[in-house]
Write a structure and sequence with these properties.
350 residues; mainly beta; eight-stranded antiparallel beta barrel
C-alpha cells in the first residue's frame, strides 16, 4: 500500500468541494502534492448533512483517488459534459457535475504510513488535525474494490500552527458536542416524538455445538455507522432501557425468537433465555439462549443481528440518530460477526 500524499514540511493549498451529479452528492478533498492536485472523494449519504469540524464527529467513507491540475483549487460551477446518468420516471437522464467550494486554505501533510495519512488544515470550516485512513471495504453494497478511505477528525489533536513543532505534544480533546448532553438529559429526550424505524445491528456470537446454546452481545454504548453511512448513537441510558425492555419481556413469559437471516444456507431456530447488562469497559448487553442448527459451525463465521423498532431523535450538529426507545422483535443469525464490523441497517422508516 502506498502513501496517499508526500510528507511535507511546508504549507500547501487545499480545497473541499461539494460535488453533485443528479441526486448523488460527494465531498472531494483536494490537496497540492508537488505539482499535482491530489483529490479523494467521500460519499455523502443518508442523513449526512455536512462535515463537522468538531473532533470525533465526522467519519465519512469514499473510494475515489485521482489527480487534477492546480486550477481545480478555484473551480466552481457546472462541467461542460455529463458526469453520470440516472433513471428518472422510466427514462435515462444525463446529468452534468456541479462543484461548490465548501472550504479552502492551507494544509500541512504530516505522518504518512501504510495505514493512514495525517493532514493539518487551516481553513474557514476545517481546522487542525485530520486523518485519512485506508481500510478494507466494509460496505460492498455501496463501494467497489477491496479498500475504501475514511476521512476523520480524531479526538487526538494538534493544531495547524504547531503541526511542525515537535516540542508540542498531541492532546486528547474531550468532545463537548450535544450528544453527551443527550445522554445526561435522556428522560427529556424520551418524551419527544422522534422518528420510528425498524433496525438491525450485527454483533458477535459464540455457539456451543454440543449443548446447542449461544451467547452474544446484543447492543453497546457508542456510535454505530450502517452500510449507508447513517449514524446511530447509543447513550448508556438507552442501553439500560434496552436491557430492561428485554428483561421485562422474558420475565413476563414472552419469547424473543431466534431465526436465520435469509441469505444464509444453514437454518437456525431458537430463542433468548437470558439477558444481562455489563457496564465495563462500556455499557453493553449480553444475551444467551438455545438453538437448533447446523453441527458444522465455524468459529467467527456467524454473528447476531438484533432486530427491533427504534424511536430516535435526529441530532443535527452531531449528525446522528439518537434512539431513546426500542421494542425488540427478534434476533437473527447472520454472516457478519461484530469482530469485523458492527453496523445498524435501517430497514424501513415511517
Amino acid at each position: 500500500m502506498t502513501n496517499l500524499f508526500t510528507y511535507s514540511k511546508k504549507e500547501v493549498d487545499f480545497v473541499l468541494h461539494e460535488h453533485q451529479v443528479g441526486s448523488k452528492i460527494d465531498y472531494q478533498l483536494s490537496i497540492m502534492d508537488g505539482d499535482e492536485l491530489r483529490f479523494l472523494s467521500f460519499n455523502r449519504t443518508g442523513e449526512m448533512a455536512g462535515i463537522s469540524n468538531v473532533p470525533n464527529i465526522t467519519k465519512i467513507f469514499g473510494e475515489s483517488e485521482d489527480t487534477r491540475v492546480p486550477a481545480w483549487l478555484t473551480f466552481e460551477g457546472q462541467t461542460k459534459n455529463s458526469e453520470g446518468e440516472e433513471n428518472v420516471d422510466g427514462k435515462t437522464v444525463q446529468f452534468p457535475g456541479f462543484y461548490t467550494i465548501l472550504d479552502k486554505g492551507k494544509a500541512i501533510v504530516g505522518v504518512q504510513t501504510d495505514d493512514y495519512s495525517e493532514v493539518f488544515l487551516s481553513g474557514e470550516q476545517l481546522t487542525d488535525r485530520w486523518i485519512i485512513r485506508k481500510l478494507p471495504n466494509l460496505f460492498p453494497k455501496v463501494f467497489g474494490g477491496k479498500t475504501i478511505n475514511l476521512l476523520w477528525k480524531p479526538p487526538v489533536q494538534k493544531s495547524f500552527n504547531s503541526a511542525l513543532d515537535y516540542n508540542v505534544d498531541y492532546n486528547t480533546v474531550d468532545c463537548a458536542c450535544p450528544i453527551k448532553n443527550a445522554s445526561e438529559n435522556f428522560a427529556k429526550l424520551s418524551r419527544g416524538e422522534g422518528t420510528v424505524m425498524n433496525s438491525e445491528m450485527v454483533t458477535d456470537v459464540n455457539f456451543d455445538k454440543e449443548l446447542q446454546t449461544f451467547e452474544g452481545i446484543a447492543g453497546a454504548e457508542g456510535t454505530w455507522i450502517d452500510m449507508f453511512n447513517n449514524k446511530y448513537t447509543y447513550t448508556k441510558e438507552f442501553i439500560v432501557h434496552h436491557y430492561k425492555e428485554q428483561l421485562a419481556r422474558l420475565e413476563s413469559g414472552d419469547t424473543i425468537e431466534l431465526n436465520t437471516s435469509h441469505e444464509l444456507e444453514h437454518q437456525f431456530e431458537g430463542k433468548i433465555t437470558g439477558v444481562r447488562l455489563v457496564r465495563e469497559p462500556i455499557y453493553h448487553i449480553v444475551v444467551n439462549g438455545i438453538y437448533s442448527g447446523p453441527a458444522d459451525l465455524t468459529d467467527g463465521e456467524y454473528g447476531l443481528s438484533y432486530e427491533y423498532r427504534l424511536r430516535s431523535s435526529w441530532n443535527e450538529e452531531f449528525q446522528s440518530w439518537v434512539p431513546f426507545f426500542a421494542t425488540t422483535d427478534k434476533i437473527s443469525v447472520v454472516r457478519k460477526p461484530a469482530c469485523k464490523i458492527c453496523w445498524i441497517n435501517k430497514v424501513k422508516q415511517f
